[in-house]
Design a protein that fits this description.
It contains 13 helices and twelve strands. The protein is an alpha/beta fold and 335 residues long. Helix 8 crosses helix 9.
């Protein structure tokens, strides 16, 4: 156990798959969090499209499950999400609404409200971090709270904390990797089964790996947004999505993959960020290379001046994976 025992009150804004998985994980780990970290984490408010549910002494797990199920437990307050963040006394806001890369809303307003109210924020929402990183981090510092966002890049992979914390004594020269599990799955299936792109995409959609509108994934835009977050957080570049050179995977054919395979390569959608480069594009990757991972896995190689190359691999997408990263961020703040 680390330090004194304490109670942490939090709210979850965006109580869908990710937000719900955060709640499930907190309840599943309650005994371990108390034993190992001395933390009693209470969820005092949740907000989603149905409305807001608040219990300032902590919402029981069963009530949260019923709130998530349609028409079983109704909202118990007239507060909206922003009002809940501001008015209900708590320590931290988990912001897990869907990403909007055009404006960052509504997540941006949720995060701004929380930071101004001197509440810590942990988010899986890429939009506000990619579009307003410098503004949000300055506001957090001015109000003496933390804004953490491990879940925005690489899912369960601890890529951001690896670069900013574990490798603090090294200079990060570049980060290169596969940061979109949907694209990696499609290219894997095309390569292994010689499937046309459209066939592999429909299969990914049927399995829930690809969205009904997969355009941000297959165009490379999702990877580009993640590179912007890395560029700003690691390299202080003040970049925006328009600064990224982006090429997607829709033009890749089974024939191209077969030619690459015969030459000892595979084709992967690779994102790379350094002070000189912000690029997403299909690249030839040698068979057996650290970036040669299959299925929905993500991978990133961090090049440093002292420690050399460090590669991490993990599940890059999914509610449980995002919840794992969110809980890790919560523990970094309070444990």
């Amino acid at each position: 156990m680390r330090g004194e025992k304490k109670t942490v009150k939090l709210s979850i804004v965006g109580f869908g798959n990710v937000g719900g998985s955060v709640a499930d994980l907190i309840f599943a780990k309650r005994s371990a969090l108390w034993r190992d970290f001395g933390l009693d984490i209470k969820i005092v408010g949740v907000a989603d499209a149905k409305g807001v549910f608040v219990e300032e002494d902590g919402i029981p797990a069963e009530k949260l499950r019923e709130f998530r199920a349609k028409h079983r437990v109704a909202p118990n307050t007239d507060l909206n999400a922003v009002e809940m963040i501001d008015a209900v006394e708590h320590d931290l806001v988990v912001e897990a609404t869907p990403t909007n890369i055009e404006s960052g809303e509504p997540g941006l307003t949720h995060i701004l409200t929380a930071l101004k109210a001197r509440r810590h924020v942990v988010t899986s929402n890429k939009g506000p971090i990619a579009l307003h990183y410098e503004r949000l981090m300055r506001l957090a510092a001015d109000n003496g709270v933390q804004l953490r966002f491990e879940a925005t890049v690489g899912g369960a992979m601890p890529l951001i904390s690896l670069c900013l914390e574990n490798l603090a004594g090294s200079e990060i020269l570049s980060v290169k990797g596969i940061l979109n599990g949907t694209c990696n799955y499609i290219l894997t299936r095309m390569s292994e089964e010689k499937l046309p792109f459209e066939h592999a995409l429909r299969e990914a959609q049927a399995l829930g790996i690809a969205e009904s509108d997969p355009s941000q994934d297959i165009s490379g835009e999702d990877t580009a947004v993640k590179l912007v977050i890395l560029a700003n957080a690691i390299f202080g570049m003040n970049a925006s999505p328009k600064d990224v050179s982006v090429q997607g995977i829709s033009e890749i054919t089974p024939e191209a993959l077969l030619l690459a395979k015969d030459a000892g390569y595979t084709i992967k959608l690779v994102g790379e960020v350094s002070r000189e480069r912000l690029e997403v594009a299909p690249r030839l990757v040698p068979k057996g290379d650290p970036l040669d991972v299959k299925g929905t896995l993500n991978v990133a190689t961090v090049k440093t001046d002292i420690a050399g190359d460090i590669t991490i691999v993990g599940k890059g997408a999914g509610p449980k994976e995002a919840a794992s990263a969110i809980l890790s961020d919560i523990l970094k703040i309070f444990a």
